[in-house]
Fold this sequence. Notes:
Elements: H1 53-61, H2 77-95, E1 133-135, E2 141-143, H3 148-156, E3 197-198, H4 212-222, E4 227-232, E5 238-243, H5 244-260, E6 275-279, H6 285-298, E7 301-305, H7 316-325, E8 330-333, H8 335-340, E9 359-362, E10 386-393, E11 399-405, H9 406-420, E12 427-430, H10 437-449, E13 453-456, H11 459-464, H12 468-476, E14 480-483, H13 485-494, E15 508-511, H14 519-530, E16 540-546, E17 550-554, E18 567-571, H15 572-576, E19 590-594, E20 598-599, E21 604-608, E22 623-628, E23 635-636, H16 640-647, E24 665-673, E25 679-684, E26 688-691, E27 694-697, H17 698-707, H18 710-713, E28 714-726, E29 729-738, H19 744-762, E30 766-773, H20 787-796, E31 803-806, H21 808-811, H22 827-836, E32 843-845, H23 864-874, E33 879-884, E34 890-895, H24 896-912, E35 921-925, H25 930-942, E36 945-949, H26 957-970, E37 975-978, H27 980-986, H28 989-994, E38 1003-1005, E39 1026-1033, E40 1039-1045, H29 1046-1060, E41 1067-1071, H30 1077-1090, E42 1093-1096, H31 1108-1115, E43 1120-1123, H32 1125-1134, H33 1139-1144, E44 1154-1157, H34 1165-1174, E45 1185-1187, E46 1219-1223, ...
Parallel strand pairs: 4-13, 6-7, 6-8, 8-9, 12-13, 12-14, 14-15, 15-16, 29-30, 33-42, 35-36, 35-37, 37-38, 41-42, 41-43, 43-44, 44-45, 56-57
Antiparallel strand pairs: 1-2, 3-21, 4-5, 10-11, 11-23, 16-17, 17-20, 18-19, 21-22, 22-24, 24-25, 26-27, 28-29, 30-31, 32-49, 33-34, 39-40, 46-47, 46-48, 49-50, 50-51, 51-52, 53-54, 55-56, 57-58
Helix pairs in contact: 4-5, 5-6, 9-10, 13-14, 23-24, 24-25, 29-30, 32-34, 37-38
Amino acid sequence: MAVPMPSKRRSLVVQTSMDAYTPPDTSSGSEDEGSVQGDSQGTPTSSQGSINMEHWISQAIHGSTTSTTSSSSTQSGGSGAAHRLADVMAQTHIENHSAPPDVTTYTSEHSIQVERPQGSTARVAPKYGNAELMETGDGVPVSSRVSAKIQQLVNTLKRPKRPPLREFFVDDFEELLEVQQPDPNQPKPEGAQMLAMRGEQLGVVTNWPPSLEAALQRWGTISPKAPCLTTMDTNGKPLYILTYGKLWTRSMKVAYNILHKLGTKQEPMVRPGDRVTLVFPNNDPAAFMVAFYGCLLAEVVPVPIEVPLTRKDAGSQQIGFLLGSCGVTVALTSDACHKGLPKSPTGEIPQFKGWPKLLWFVTESKHLSKPPRDWFPHIKDANNDTAYIEYKTCKDGSVLGVTVTRIALLTHCQALTQACGYTEAETIVNVLDFKKDVGLWHGILTSVMNMMHVISIPYSLMKVNPLSWIQKVCQYKAKVACVKSRDMHWALVAHRDQRDINLSSLRMLIVADGANPWSISSCDAFLNVFQSKGLRQEVICPCASSPEALTVAIRRPTDDSNQPPGRGVLSMHGLTYGVIRVDSEEKLSVLTVQDVGLVMPGAIMCSVKPDGIPQLCKTDEIGELCVCAIATGTSYYGLSGMTKNTFEVFPMTSSGGPITEYPFIRTGLLGFIGPGGLVFVIGKMDGLMVVSGRRHNADDIVATALAVEPMKFVYRGRIAVFSVSVLHDERIVIVAEQRPDSTEEDSFQWMSRVLQAIDSIHQVGVYCLALVPANTLPKTPLGGIHLSETKQLFLEGSLHPCNVLMCPHTCVTNLPKPRQKQPEIGPASVMVGNLVSGKRIAQASGRDLGQIEDNDQARKFLFLSEVLQWRAQTTPDHVLYTLLNCRGTIANSLTCVQLHKRAEKIAVMLMERGHLQDGDHVALVYPPGIDLIAAFYGCLYAGCVPITVRPPHPQNIATTLPTVKMIVEVSRSACLMTTQLICKLLRSREAAAAVDVRTWPPVLDTDDLPKKRPAQIYKPSNPDTLAYLDFSVSTTGMLAGVKMSHAATSAFCRSIKLQCELYPSREVAICLDPYCGLGFVLWCLCSVYSGHQSILIPPSELETNPALWLLAVSQYKVRDTFCSYSVMELCTKGLGSQTESLKARGLDLSRVRTCVVVAEERPRIALTQSFSKLFKDLGLHPRAVSTSLGCRVNLAICLQPHRLGKLAEQGTSGPDPTTVYVDMRALRHDRVRLVERGSPHSLPLMESGKILPGVRIIIANPETKGPLGDSHLGEIWVHSTHNASGYFTIYGDESLQSDHFNSRLSFGDTQTIWARTGYLGFLRRTELTDANGERHDALYVVGALDEAMELRGMRYHPIDIETSVIRAHKSITECAVFTWTNLLVVVVELDGSEQEALDLVPLVTNVVLEEHYLIVGVVVVVDIGVIPINSRGEKQRMHLRDGFLADQLDPIYVAYNM
């Protein structure tokens, strides 16, 4: 539906009032609504009501607000109008992303109207003047553009919220797709208006029968021995001769049995007028003919269809829908066909997918009872009853039934007889499908009217012997043959000097697909070769036909060989604009077309513009051919709306009047009427592809592809061309079947040549060219390609191509312009900006540590080592740590005193065996467990600085050991402590192959410890000295160590204790890696500080037992638990189907108050939601799951969800208060725009947890370092007593150090020292209140600055593109993206067979174009597990990039998009 609304609203101030009106768009709506066909001048269809211009403008000028329309249809009540109004509003809000203009100075009382083209009565007339003040979603007043009623309606439609008032800067994220501007030099039609063409009079011959049944009766009784039909076997021998006598008696028998032997006497199954389907194979025309005429005699309506070979035949479901809508309950079929249908074990014929329940009725004579002597069919003159229904497959694969009346059937036979000059007893060879189209009209119907003899050649015989039809013409001295250009082409390929061929008997060779632009080459080549065998040029008669209009035109056979056939050499370029320009044959970019003869006898033909109102074309313009005649179809069965559009068209002259009072029928053929009344067809409406405003014909593109050395690499008849809609334009896709013997290299050569040929001849880019293995494209029953099914397979990713070439770079030309960065904004204007918006500066803080009064005993100690000694004295037997093994039993536990004593022994060992001084660095290489904790406190007791390091993986030493070595070297560790097992591993042969083992520092094995205590325990002189180093590899592959002082460590523990309310009586379950960040702090430090018991679950144990963590949480009745995303994912994927059995084992999560995911990234909302949903049945509270945020400069900024105070005016229907939806397009421009859930381009963001006590946060512009306002995107800066005190690196890069850890704002509060987190995010004040009554400030993380990709001037976060890609196909399990020389590289893991790999390439390219306006440069398909993921479950995109560049990924397929 087209709403005349500008897509970017300009401020009305600049325009005069008249310019603000857009006239209504009168393009037709969807086919069901009927196109705009009349003008309001009282033509037969003016109820469709298009609006004439002057009326509309005058109405607009008078500012009328009433809803008027020139349509004569009235709507029922107001609800209809409201619905349509909703439609209109929905459209305008999707189309219009710009902020509303400032209209405060514009007060005139004009109204603007939104016009729906289809005579809808809904109009919106918003007043622009005294606009009320309204609030958008985030509480910013805007002057509303519409009345409150409509605003309410918009809100109920859940459309995106109106953005706030324009900021002081230009909102530059209006990513408007480029609209193709028409070429000023494009050719335009210049001829006069065409005149309708009349065919010759249909001459009535005296002995013509009054109906087709009457003709059958006549020949069957007066010349019963005359041959009617000869069928062939696959060797080309005559199989059977059906005489007119037999056809007559058998048809009578079938008619009698249909009417009297189905159902009961009282309740017959089939009555006259009912539809029955005819299911006959292509090699049995005799049985079909008998059944067809039996139906005509019984006055039931035959619906001939193809034999369904399997339950899943291409298009068979749609055929089923047609049968259902025709109310078919009986299928007539032959014995052999019945036996060949698929059967169930009980011998029943299964119901095919989408088909109605059918009674199968075999029409062989031996199965039928004889009609009584007094029974006789009722033979009437032809009337308007339906004679038969011919099925037609549309472009989209749906199947329609075209009804043909008895009078149309008879008239058509008469017109064909006259046009072709048929006479009695002529012989005709038919190679075409006899069930529909030209084969049915000539070979079954017209032949009987004239008592002709048909020699029927089945498709199976043509496959074995392509010359068979030519041999039969010679053998029977046939006068006429009906073929397709394919049959001529095959005969050429096979003929190789057949000596005895003589075609001089032929007076007419009907070429059924003569309307196809490339049939001309077959005709010419055939004539060339067979002219010497007696074939005359004037014998070749191309014809044009369509299911709706039957035969549209046919070339008449003449005896005059001097009159050459009509030829047109047309410029391809002109044709794409619908204009006829004659060109010269020498050029490549021309289309040579042959005429298809004259209009049929008794018909009128004209051509109308293909879209919009059916207006007559000019003489040099291409249009859709329309025919007015008796001999045509009359409707699509059961579809009145579509019938009106096709069968009841009234062509208009330029003055607006119809040319006749009789309706015309659209033939679906594009063409023109040339000189001398010759009809030329240049393509089909169905094959039309409109790319950037130019029209291309699928058949022409096929012809060009075939002209590029066709026979070598691909099969001639097996090329499909269609268009798919990507990013608001049609894109051309070519799919061809590749010959099995052609190599990858050859194919690519061919593909690139095809692309060049199409580009130079048609001046259009091909979006995708795919080659599939031979014989894999879905076929139509006669062996052609099923186009819509092929397109469907392409779009759903199940085509399985073996070669793909995508060219989005060359053919996607409507991307938005790349973003130009605005000049830097000075501090003053930012400040002003914040004030103008009425926004507060974005800052937030946790509770103030100093003001919290609690009985925290540990506060009086400055150092953690002192806290441990104090606990060992006061509560020696209190258990601090419990370690579980993979069976869920306790593997080990530590009390306060046990930990203290082990730490003392380790301290002695460090001093005596390691000879370490205080301040030396010690690397702790332990598996997750108790040893690690003891070693850590041992280091503190000895005055050494510990560094926890993940041990190398025994199965993967080559990649994991170098990281260990690197951390040990970078941290300048003086010694390395570990277990005996890892000691051996470090000295193993595999280790020696991976690293230089001679350069390790001394290795101490803590499995056997000295028995004595240290003389004294080390006490640091100053709380600001180094407590430990925290090393971690970031997702961008950077190894960064940060320094944690004793003061920061204690403050950190206190902050967590207060936030999580931890006391010695509490138990906390921890399923995290204990090597860095918050995971290490929770595993090693918090229990000692707060005294609570930590139940430790190593995440690696979950690989053998995914339920371990949740069973432990349930068993120990834990209220608080911590995990990582990888743990959560393991549970979601591994336990998804086991919730019932876990429930039976007594798993109960109802006591869990908080389940915190420890992360350093944007919260993964989809994962946390599916986890919550999955375990809801096991008692998990939906609000229990929350996330934390940490980074290198501050290991935990947010943690723990809110204990919500009162929900401030949150209705019950309100969404979870911690999730917002932002516009992804705005985000690319570093803007935050809140929208409603489900609106287009919306992205859900979940709050990252509550800010920890003692932490202050501000959002700053990463470039200017100025503070930003509430809900503005910027870098998150943090100030806290537990900030790390700096990076620890060998190089000591001071500038980086001061920038990341000691930054100050450029204005405002310039005193505070902040640390930069490197994450983009925003703060948003919510309606919720905290426990202390303050409004709650939520922190939302968007992504890491160093992960983000700059493309086309915009900032993209990899995760957003990856999310889109993973949704694109069911076989994509994981995805990672990165950039490489300004190209976007997408790596996808394939869970499926390798033949699916190439299906992913177009789908990935499409989805990234549609959702992100980006062109993918390279698509890499790899096996599962290739994308590296770190212990926190984060993708290591830079490692992946290095692997890609070093060619180490061993990909299944790499596609380089051109």
